[in-house]
Amino acid sequence: MHSRRSEFISGVKAELPITLGVIPFGMIYGVLALGAGLPASAAQAMSSIVFAGSAQFVAAQLFGSGTPGLVIVLTAFVVNLRHMLYSASVAPYLKHLNSRWKGLLAYLLTDEAYAVVITRYNRDAAYPVAPPNRHWYFLGAGLTLWSTWQASTAVGILLGAQIPPGWALDFTLALTFIALVVPALDGRPSVAAALAAGMVAVLAAGLPYKLGLMLAAIFGIAAGLLIETRQSPKNDRRARAA
Amino acid sequence: MNLWLTILGMGIVTFTIRLSLIALMGRVKVSPLIQRALRFVPPAVLSAIIFPELLMRNGALDVSFGNTRLLAGALAALVAWRTKNVLLTIGVGMAALWILQAVMLR
Known about the structure:
The complex is a heterodimer of chains A (242) and B (106).
Chain A: H1 4-35, H2 40-49, H3 53-64, H4 69-80, H5 82-94, H6 99-107, H7 111-124, H8 135-159, H9 171-181, H10 188-203, H11 211-230, H12 233-241
Helix pairs in contact in A: 1-3, 1-7, 1-8, 1-9, 2-8, 3-4, 5-7, 7-8, 10-11
Chain B: H1 2-24, H2 32-38, H3 41-55, E1 56-57, E2 60-61, H4 68-83, H5 86-105
Helix pairs in contact in B: 4-5
């Protein structure tokens, strides 16, 4: 039986390698937010209150160009809409918890925490009885990412514009996502989902308010479902066992 | 003041999205089709962020050997596929990008 403590520590350990990709990203956000004219207090507060990397980047840029607040909030809504799908995905594993736990874990539900937590929970499906303390795993992973994000934002704000653009540290974001998605491609349907979404994202990159991202996700999911439905039952079973 | 209201609004919107289906679970029934669809969300959304990062420069498609991010990203994908190691993938990808940029500048 896994104790709360051991679940929490496993969550921290699983999240740690991912924080390496998040640290430069948080620092770049801090630098960029100051560059866009945000006061240091507001730049840091956005990391604590919003706690959503890509939305914060977009918002900082919009603030800099004098965009009205309502448009910025709407943009954050669209950019973060994908989290609704994460919310649905983890919901079955959290439904026995009280609303304080649900609220806390929802606040910590970022791309990077989701990727780690859902990988673990999908693995649990092999056992007949679900481990009772696994929400502590989620808490460990989520808090690790949260602390990293706050600290790296603070460092970015302190460094200001000291980091030369030639270091291209923003590239670590794409690399982190590559490291997460490639090993998870476990069959033709998921490969189809990744390729279709990627291609639509490139074609629709010109659309305003990051709408291309949502469009690409919808096409990717549809492609995955289509290929999965067409596969023979034998292949289907193998894909599920993997 | 408007700045802080905007940040607060972004926070409320983001939190509400993240809580939505966690809170509604049990009250709304998620159909088997939706459950199947949800498994494709991570590869679809993450690829939709990765592809433009690698394939586009200044808003235009760039599939050439001059695109250092595409080459470094392809190498990182190979490392991720063979090793499943997050740290190694990021390390090799960044090193490849820096080396390629240094070579291209010559």
